[in-house]
Write a sequence for this structure.
């Protein structure tokens, strides 16, 4: 209702203003015409009076007298006269009185009219033609009929307010009518608005009817049904509005989320592109320094840069597998030792827990962490000796702990600064080891701790979360004697070998070693040869020693010791390597069976079947481990699974047949199915027979007897 009244008032005001302008325009036109008529009448009468006054004497008086006469006539006029002038026939003024500047400079007589009222740009003025018979003045010439033009210029008349009373009266009447209607409609509208507000507060038809009846306004009767319909429409529209508002909010939120995701994606892509470009640049810088770096260092940095790219930008998939750490470490010692300079030595120190548990971890990540730790340790100047300790921490959450210690002057200050504050993407080409360790720390929940003291070397600790499983292999070896000139390293290795031997005794002096051998009989002697060249005393001892032994020498004097006795590099000393060598040395007369199967249940079942028999079982889970083991020692039979995780069994058989010691050794296919086409493939690969899964103990014994394994 307020909107209707507002529209009405706007219309009324517009009409009022239009009528006011119309009255003003009509009054102005009427006033103009009335003023012109009155002025024309006054000027015509006044002009006739002047003509009658001047005609008799116009040709007999001089111009000065004529001017004086005009001045008298101007003064005697009944209405204000601004100027009077007499013009000759040629239009030039003859006599002038009053405001000369407002008079026209030249006037041409209008011969068609005796009197005429003319309008200048701003003023009215009148022309009256005066005719005379004789004009003696030389100005008029000698014509018998002479004409002169009288010009009368009146003063501008002001507005006569008394004459405008009709306009004022009409405007006042209009104003009264408009105000009266405005007051009436305002009161009526206020009553209607109160009534409609009362009706709108009712929620049902009966209440609306009661309100209409109570109001007593007949104008509200048509509104009754209208309000009911509007109420229903309003409820429906409010529901639609709420639903639309909710949908709009959801769409706005979804749009905002999409925009935020898009911005995050663009930012991530730009950041990734910058990191990739930086990585490629660092790779190029590393390649340019191929000739300047030692070959082992260049190779390890190249591998780390490649693996860093896979970790940071590639599809690097962690694949945790059940792993026997002693066996896995035995496969990796050669690779890791090849990364070090030729004049350095690496000692592996494993804790007994490694022999008691199998762990589930990603082998590639573990190897990558070891490579990065070795590369970082090589930054210690004058580094010669390294010790790599591996163990399992068994609190609530098992972790594989690795600690690498090396001598030298410690890490340079800028390397320590990078370890503390630098992000992996901001490191230089030489910092690939730091970058890999930081990425593994972030993505696999690893812990990294580095201690560096000037002149005392570096200690790098790295631990990974793992899952542990009890190892079923609990075989113990006979009494051993261990010699190591380094007392600290001797204690560590005694602790390591104590988990797999019945008795082990250690000594760090050659004289003590000879005394121990004289006092007690031992099954095997393990010697960590001294770091210096062989002395005369050592040469005599080795010549007279008849006890089976395993000897390990440091790389620096390895060749000199190798001339005296068969020995291995000290970097190969690990638990699995020792166990394999001990089995061969202490049981030379027993047959040896190599079982290659990634199923630990099958391995355990074969061990149970061969208990009490003169057969030594060596079990591995991968093709790489099987090939490495066969190169280290000769087995009497190989039981080979066809589906291995890294290589097929047929391919392993082909490679084994190329070895000199395995051209005639029986190789049996260990598989769950053998179709005729598959049997032909097994034969073509060099396999002698097939053993089906699940394993039948009777057939297994018969097959071993056929090939004279017992």
């Amino acid at each position: 209702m307020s909107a209707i009244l507002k529209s009405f008032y706007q219309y009324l005001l517009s009409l009022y203003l239009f009528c006011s302008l119309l009255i003003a325009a009509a009054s102005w036109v009427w006033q103009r015409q009335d003023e012109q008529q009155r002025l024309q009448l006054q000027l015509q009468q006044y002009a006739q009076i002047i003509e009658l006054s001047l005609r008799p004497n116009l040709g007999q008086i001089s111009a000065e007298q004529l001017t004086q006469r005009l001045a008298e006539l101007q003064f005697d006029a009944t209405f204000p006269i601004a100027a009077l002038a007499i013009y000759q026939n040629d239009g030039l003024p003859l006599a002038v009185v009053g405001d000369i500047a407002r008079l026209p400079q030249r006037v041409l007589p209008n011969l068609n009219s005796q009197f005429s009222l003319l309008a200048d740009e701003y003023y009215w003025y009148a022309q009256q033609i005066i005719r005379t018979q004789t004009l003696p003045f030389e100005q008029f010439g000698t014509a018998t009929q002479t004409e002169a033009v009288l010009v009368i210029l009146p003063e501008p008349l002001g507005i006569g307010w008394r004459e405008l009373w009709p306009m004022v009266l009409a405007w006042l009447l209009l104003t009264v009518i408009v105000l009266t209607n405005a007051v009436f409609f305002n009161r009526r509208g206020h009553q209607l608005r109160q009534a409609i507000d009362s009706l709108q507060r009712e929620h049902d038809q009966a209440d609306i009817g009661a309100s209409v009846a109570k109001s007593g306004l007949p104008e509200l009767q048509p509104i009754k049904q209208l309000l009911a319909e509007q109420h229903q429409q309003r409820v429906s529209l409010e529901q639609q509005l709420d639903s639309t508002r909710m949908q709009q909010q959801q769409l706005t939120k979804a749009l905002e989320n999409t925009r935020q995701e898009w911005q995050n994606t663009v930012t991530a892509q730009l950041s990734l592109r910058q990191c990739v470009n930086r990585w490629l640049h660092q790779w190029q810088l590393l390649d340019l320094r191929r000739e300047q770096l030692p070959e082992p260092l260049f190779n390890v940095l190249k591998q780390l840069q490649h693996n860093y790219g896979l970790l940071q930008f590639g599809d690097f998939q962690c694949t945790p597998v059940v792993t026997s750490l002693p066996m896995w470490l035995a496969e990796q010692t050669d690779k890791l030792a090849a990364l070090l300079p030729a004049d350095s030595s690496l000692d592996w120190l494993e804790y007994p827990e490694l022999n008691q548990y199998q762990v589930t971890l990603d082998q590639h990540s573990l190897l990558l962490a070891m490579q990065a730790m070795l590369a970082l340790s090589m930054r210690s100047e004058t580094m010669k000796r390294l010790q790599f300790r591996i163990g399992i921490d068994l609190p609530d959450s098992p972790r594989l702990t690795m600690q690498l210690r090396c001598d030298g002057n410690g890490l340079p200050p800028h390397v320590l600064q990078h370890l503390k504050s630098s992000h992996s993407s901001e490191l230089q080409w030489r910092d690939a080891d730091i970058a890999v360790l930081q990425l593994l720390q972030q993505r696999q929940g690893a812990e990294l701790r580095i201690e560096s003291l000037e002149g005392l070397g570096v200690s790098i600790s790295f631990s990974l979360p793992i899952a542990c499983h009890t190892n079923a292999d609990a075989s113990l070896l006979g009494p051993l004697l261990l010699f190591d000139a380094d007392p600290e390293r001797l204690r560590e290795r005694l602790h390591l070998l104590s988990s797999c031997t019945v008795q082990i005794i250690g000594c760090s002096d050659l004289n003590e070693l000879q005394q121990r051998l004289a006092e007690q009989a031992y099954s095997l002697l393990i010697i960590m040869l001294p770091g210096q060249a062989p002395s005369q005393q050592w040469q005599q001892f080795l010549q007279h020693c008849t006890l089976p032994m395993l000897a390990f020498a440091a790389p620096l004097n390895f060749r000199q010791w190798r001339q005296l006795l068969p020995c291995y590099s000290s970097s190969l000393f690990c638990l699995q390597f020792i166990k394999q060598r001990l089995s061969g040395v202490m049981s030379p007369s027993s047959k040896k069976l190599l079982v290659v199967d990634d199923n630990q249940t099958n391995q355990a079942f074969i061990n149970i079947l061969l208990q009490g028999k003169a057969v030594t079982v060596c079990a591995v889970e991968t093709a790489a481990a099987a090939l490495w083991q066969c190169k280290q020692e000769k087995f009497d039979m190989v039981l080979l699974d066809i589906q291995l995780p890294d290589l097929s069994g047929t391919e392993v058989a082909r490679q084994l047949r190329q070895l000199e010691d395995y051209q005639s050794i029986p190789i049996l296919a260990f598989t769950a199915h053998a179709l005729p086409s598959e049997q032909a493939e097994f034969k073509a690969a060099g396999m002698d027979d097939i053993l089906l899964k699940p394993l039948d103990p009777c057939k297994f014994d018969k097959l071993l007897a056929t090939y004279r394994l017992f």
User: Anything to note?
Assistant: DSSP finds 21 helices and 23 strands in the chain.
